[in-house]
């Protein structure tokens, strides 16, 4: 079975501090992994995907197959980063599986 | 339209009434998902449609919940005999599942309030 775990429901950091949102997955094959973000009063949208190996809004995420993790990181948090973040997994040709989300608050 | 569209945006209903929520996915997307987002909570999977395959209904919380997808496009989520605990934002998403760079696109949601 596919499963995505986000252990932190709530996370608060001070502006300028590093932030890491944790995501662990369980899947025996080679999944595609994503981070989605939902800002206040906006719809859920894709932030980044692991196959692109990109940095979006200063965020990066590295797929660690040994630890089955896909943690989201940013070296210096900004107030506008406050949002709900969801980690997601999809097996090619199959459905998306979302974690339960982490609410990030960046304290000014 | 360019994105996933949901209607209505807001729905207030009396306890015990039935409600229907509509989702228009992006044209050509074979996969369609319904999720529920309660106040302060994360995403709760409800149901998944993929083409002509039997839907994955494993997330529906009770038999008062049902969903249909007609002609592989528009979907309707029906909640019968609504209860106060059904109050939440109901999100729909669609995706093209067979491409390498697949992505799930979300609608703006329907906020359901049961009074």
Helix count, DSSP H or I runs of 4 or more residues of chain B: 0
Class per helix and strand makeup of chain B: mainly beta
Q: Oligomer, anyone?
A: heterodimer
Total tally of structural domains of chain B: 1
- Report the top-level CATH class of chain A: Mainly Beta
Overall mean confidence score, pLDDT of chain B: 92
Distance between the termini of chain A: 41 Å
The CATH architecture of chain B would be: Sandwich
- The separation of the N and C termini of chain B measures 33 Å
Largest sheet of chain A: 6 strands, mixed
Integer-rounded radius of gyration of chain B: 14 Å
CATH superfamily of chain B: Immunoglobulins
Beta-strand proportion of chain B: over 45%
**Largest contact between protein chains?**
A-B, 27 and 25 residues
What is the typical, i.e. mean, pLDDT of chain A?
91
Describe the structure.
Helix content of chain A is 0%, strand content 44%. With 108 residues, chain A is mainly β. Chain A has one domain: Immunoglobulin-like (Sandwich), CATH 2.60.40.10. In chain A, the strands form three sheets. In chain A, strands 2, 5, 6, 9, 10 and 11 form a six-stranded mixed β-sheet that branches. In chain A, strands 3-8-7 form a three-stranded antiparallel β-sheet, with no helix packed on it. Chain A is globular. In chain B, 0% of the residues lie in helices and 46% in strands. Chain B is mainly β and 115 residues long. In chain B, strand 6 and strand 7 (75-79) form a beta hairpin. Chain B contains no helices and ten strands. In chain B, strands 2, 4, 5, 8, 9 and 10 form a six-stranded mixed β-sheet that branches. The chains are: A mainly beta (108), B mainly beta (115).
């Amino acid at each position: 079975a596919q499963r995505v775990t986000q252990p932190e429901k709530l996370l608060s950091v001070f502006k300028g501090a590093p932030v890491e949102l944790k995501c662990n997955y369980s899947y025996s094959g080679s999944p595609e992994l994503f981070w989605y973000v939902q800002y206040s009063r906006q719809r859920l949208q894709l932030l980044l995907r692991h196959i692109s190996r990109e940095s979006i809004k200063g965020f990066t995420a590295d797929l660690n197959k040994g630890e089955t993790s896909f943690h989201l990181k940013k070296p210096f948090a900004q107030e506008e980063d406050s949002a709900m973040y969801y980690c997601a997994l999809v097996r090619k040709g199959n459905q998306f599986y979302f974690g339960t989300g982490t609410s990030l608050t960046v304290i000014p | 339209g360019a994105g996933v569209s949901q209607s209505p945006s807001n729905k207030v209903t009396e306890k015990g009434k039935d409600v229907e929520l509509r989702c228009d996915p992006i044209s050509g997307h074979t996969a369609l998902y319904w999720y529920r987002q309660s106040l302060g909570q994360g995403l709760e999977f409800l149901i998944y449609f993929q083409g002509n395959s039997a839907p994955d209904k494993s997330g529906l919380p009770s038999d008062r919940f049902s969903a249909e997808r007609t002609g592989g496009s528009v979907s309707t989520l029906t909640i019968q005999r609504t209860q106060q605990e059904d109050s939440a934002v109901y999100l729909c998403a669609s995706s093209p599942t067979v491409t390498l760079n697949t992505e799930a696109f979300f609608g703006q949601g329907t906020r359901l309030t049961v009074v």
